[in-house]
Amino acid sequence: MRCDVCGKPASVHEIMINNGEKSEVHLCLEHAIEAGLSIPSAQPIAQLLASQGKRRQRPPVMLCAHCGLSLADFKKSSRLGCAHCYDALGEALEAAIIATQGGATAHHGESPAHASVDEAHRLTRARLVRELEAAVTAEQYERAARLRDQLADLAEARPAVGEPSSGTGGASESTS
Amino acid sequence: MKLVTPSIWTGGDGPDSDVVISTRVRLARNLQEVSFTGRASQIQATEAVQSVERAIGRSKALRELTWISVATLTASERALLVERGLVGEHFASSHHPRGMALSDHGDLAILVNEEDHVRVQAVRPGLQVEESLEGAMAAERALGEHLPFSFHSRWGYLTACPTNVGTGLRVSVMLHLPAMVLGKQLKRLEAAAKELRLAIRGFRGEGTANEADLYQVSNHVTLGRSAQEIAHEFATVIVPELVEWERAARRAYLAGHRWRALDRASRDLSALQSAHLMPREEAMRKLGRIRHGVCLGVIGGITQAALRSLMLRVQPEHLALERPASGHGAEAELLERASLLREAFADATARLPGSA
Ligand SMILES: [Zn+2]
Ligand SMILES: [Zn+2]
């Protein structure tokens, strides 16, 4: 297994549940610490605590499984990595948003009209293909199998979705 | 490459143009399934550019825009875009895949892979907040028919920086506040900004110093109220109030310091009419003061529209475009800028207001 963030050998493996969706996170030691994950320890005190059945208080997982951005990254750059970060970074992000937005706690107003479903599927397919390639490169075969299934489901749902049709519509590069 | 100059620089004056130079409205949007620009791979970033370019090509409303592949522009073409305020320094020089589409009058631009995948911006001369918003919204809706934008049930439109989340709307108006500067009333402006949650920036946006007494005032809060509500408050409450402050300060200055106003105007004018080496900073400072003089009525023979376009023409890249000789070294630039200004102000005169 490889670290989802940097590709180095992963030593921490976590299963995260987000909005009912399960995802696996694999991280090297450095990125696990940055993400605030508890580090597996061989120290006797940890074993002792475990054997006494006391659950160690773990800090909540603050890492976006989709793009690998951690809360620490966000605090450093003030920028999020992807749309999923908004749910993954939890209460810390929520508090930061409310503070910078003058106390506003939710959006009010316009929402998207129905966008072309084809384009949405095309983007989903492109993402799954990207993730599949990454999983194969990282030798994450279980993950790769799952992604292949998702791609198959997507193709079944909309068999017509494939490459964008050529020749029609695309804005042409200005040559002058 | 067709690079039009936005009409806010070259066209007529808009409403309240004695104080409000221009209005800009920007909507930030991101595509579903693609990491935000700062974290996107080269492949993802390219996909975003292609998706938007394709959507523009498919949209009846947007098909007429000129698509500009930013990577293929020359360094000087990029500098022109920055000087016109169409793109930031970072966007112009980035090596990330990026693109933009521009309308014929330069009043509408769609930027791809700025900090967010899509930024739709509309500009108008003078105070035209709601008109600008309508322009940006129409383009955003047209894009939205072909592109799935990231939208969250609680947070609204998702953006790379949570300071833009919700509406993704940034309204900013460029104000000319020479009398408030002279009357040391900027503290008042800063206090109002804090209370109303406004950001105040210089001529070139975030982190830049003010030039020519020009200030950009924009909304800080993008969440919790609709874009129309934010724009409406800007158009009907916030900006009119600031405009009245500046007008009152100008009246007070003229009433109390008639001769000083005339003295300043005459000195500034003769500097522009006689200088042979003119640095950019000094030119901008003087243009700001001359603009004040025109508004007070102590300077005649030059229009506000002419001053507005001069503020762009004295910038290095535009100067080089208009007067190629200025491109040949630092002194040549100073010489050509001085010569441009001597010609522009040849017929301008200073006089006491009310006198012939
Ligand atoms: Zn790592
Ligand atoms: Zn993320």
Key features of this structure:
heterodimer; A: 176 residues; mainly alpha; 3 domains; two-stranded antiparallel sheet; 2 strands; 42% helix; disordered C terminus; B: 356 residues; alpha+beta; Creatine Kinase, Chain A, domain 2; 2 domains; 8-stranded antiparallel beta sheet; 13 helices; binds zinc ion
N-to-C CA distance of chain B: 48 Å
Instruction: Using the alpha-carbon principal axes, give the shape of chain A.
Output: flat
Q: Helix tally of chain B?
A: 13
The assigned structural class of chain B equals alpha+beta
Give the bound compounds.
Answer: zinc ion
Q: What is the mean pLDDT of chain A?
A: 74
- Main beta-sheet annotation of chain B: 8 strands, antiparallel
Task: Please list the strands of the largest sheet of chain A in the order they lie side by side.
Answer: 1-2
DSSP, total strands of chain A: 2
What name does CATH use for the topology of the largest domain in chain B? Creatine Kinase, Chain A, domain 2
Name the beta content range of chain A: 5-15%
Strand order of the largest sheet of chain B: 2-3-4-5-1-8-10-9
Which spans of chain A of ≥5 residues are poorly predicted at pLDDT below 50? 41-46, 51-56, 160-176
How many helix segments of chain A? 7
The topology string of helices and strands of chain A comes to: EEHHHHHHH
CATH architecture of the largest domain in chain B: 2-Layer Sandwich
CATH H-level homologous superfamily name of the largest domain in chain B:
Glutamine synthetase/guanido kinase, catalytic domain
Query: Major beta sheet of chain A, specifics?
Result: 2 strands, antiparallel
Q: Estimate the global geometry of chain B from the Cα principal axes.
A: globular
